[in-house]
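Protein modeling request. Please complete all fields; requests missing the sequence field cannot be processed.
Requester role: graduate student
Desired output: 3D structure, token encoding
Chains: 1
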Amino acid sequence: MERYHFFASSCRQFGFNCKSLSELKSDESEPDGALATVLKVLQRIHSMFFDPELGDDFSGRDVRQVVKRVRKEVLKGCKIVFSRVFPTRFQAENHHLWRMAEQLGATCATELDPSVTHVVSTDAGTEKSRWALQEKKFLVHPGWIEAANYFGKSNLKRTFPSTKRRTNNLCLPLLELTLSRN
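Delivered output (182 residues):
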């Protein structure tokens, strides 16, 4: 997730030689930006917590459980396999991206099968990445999981495709599949 630089001083502080959003007289998308997304999630949590069908007794309710239920829906239905994301001999189930994906409702696996929906990789040239392209599965960068966690939605694949494919020692941009979800 990139740092948000609205003011020029922030750009200078972090060594960026570019115009800030305030200088460009621009800001994040009003309907789709981070603040709008967080507001939608908070409104959903609020309505679930105060659901009239659950009655007027709030003493037994725990907003943390409501938050967990909402988060479990973000990647619900996704079956993810990682390719060259974890260090060799690392217990995949212990990696923060694996745990994050599961907290968001995804099922993670180490082996490919037809039920896999997403391959997460930084390199589109791996065997698993090539399989994803051949089978018309989503091939995404690990940042997609972090963005899904941050924004509370999974339809960010256009922003986070795996970016490189090796062909004869050339690195070519990977064209994203035109499949859509959510």
